[in-house]
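Quick start: load a record and inspect it. Here is S8 family serine peptidase:
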Amino acid sequence: MNIIKPILFSAIAATVLTSCGGGAKVLSTPIENIDSIPLKVSPLTETQKHTWGHLDLIQDTIPGMSVDKAYTEIIKNNEGKTVIVAVIDSGIDIEHEDLDGVIWTNEKEIPNNGIDDDKNGFVDDVHGWNFLGDTYDEQLEYVRILATGDESNPDYARAKKEYDQEYAKFINYKTQYEQLLQQLKGADELISAKLNKSDYNLADIETIEAADDEALSTAVAIGKYILGLGFEDVNAAKKDLNNGLESISERLNYNLNIKFQGRKTGDNPDDLTDVGYGNGNVMPVKDSESHGTHVAGIIAAERNNGLGVNGVANNVKIMSIRAVPNGDEYDKDIALAIRYAVDNGAQIINGSFGKYYSPHSDWVRDAIAYASENDVLFVNAAGNEGQDLDVKNCFPNDQIDNGPEVGDTFVTVGALEPKYGPEMVAGFSNYGKINVDVFSPGAKIYSTVPGSDKYDTKGGTSMAAPAVAGVAALIRSQYPKLSATQVKQVLMDSGLPVNIDVIVSGDPSNKKPFADLSKSTKMVNAYNALILASKLK
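Running the structure step on this input writes:
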């Protein structure tokens, strides 16, 4: 499954389908209090749902990153130094009301004159670069391997087995979603008429007396079953199921379609020297291309402007690099995107993408090493398969088969739920004592999406990585003399340790000590990070 743009069905929808190193001491909340705090049992308020990643574990009993506390008690009115964060992702809506003031501009480039004014090899790269051109939908990497027909490829047999399994699975998903939607449509008509409203919830359905009406009784049973899976109301169920069906169809029509050819850039993706392709238009090509905009908002949505959301970092410029399609990214695009970010002044790179097949992984590792050599921190999403990355290779990475790292500025991030305790690790999140460094908020995150004033909630390690990139930007802004290596160590050492067993991969029978899921054994904490950074300046 593609790691950043898989079908990230809600846990409810998934149920429907499956049923057919130590560091310096940090002066903050006493560590001994963390595992004895009362667990939050009441539902999150609407405000908490939209801001939980910024809240404080002790004050709010929610495993956020203490961002609000960091601003109130440490940063206050100190803006710090501007930090450039490159977001390698899908397109970003740079005209969004909550992002238009935080977009990086290449001051050496004259817009739309068709000339490479700064002679960096990219014409009119005013806000970044688009390595995809007009492309958005793409195959998965293992489908591209099969499409070559080269059975001598060492990955061919594995790719074929995975393809056969995935194609059959998604055909089955499509059938089930269509059936659920059809059943819900019929039931909804009767229930809405009976209740005389169209926005009912499970409690409303339970008030219906339908013993003498067989059709209504059947509708009530269907409504209770579907909304009983956890949907807030019938409209939420319709939205989730329709979005799921759309994602399933995209998977079958594009990602798993061996005959589909999405790339239209005119270059050879297997030739790293074939450059100059793409263009300077970093905007999404359609509304559903929302991933990059959501990620950018988590990092840097304009703070305290009375709109939408607050980003983690307060003095950031987002460099938009469009290189991640709806499908698997090409290694060439990612390698060149990393080098573009480094060469054009980025101090932090956010990479919320990934895959399990990478024919040119060496190109990407070389680029990661290049970033490290140039004092650039790379924040990487761990992936959404619930896999142990110490056992299964995931790309990009900064090492081969758990071997030596090519640099010391690569940070891989797992995802947390807004629920402290045994269920705090997101069921989809990958993990690994060697290959995952830290955990941060990544499930149910509210942020910007394309459209001048639009926002939505999404989940994935794709959302956890930019949370950490935002904290890293705060550190580099407030303490600009710290190196990328030091910033990584601050993130690792200053987090909050969790000394309990947690559910892994969403399987209640699979519990592990939280400390065994990452190298740092901690969840990132902005408040602690700034305290520790102040001791290193």
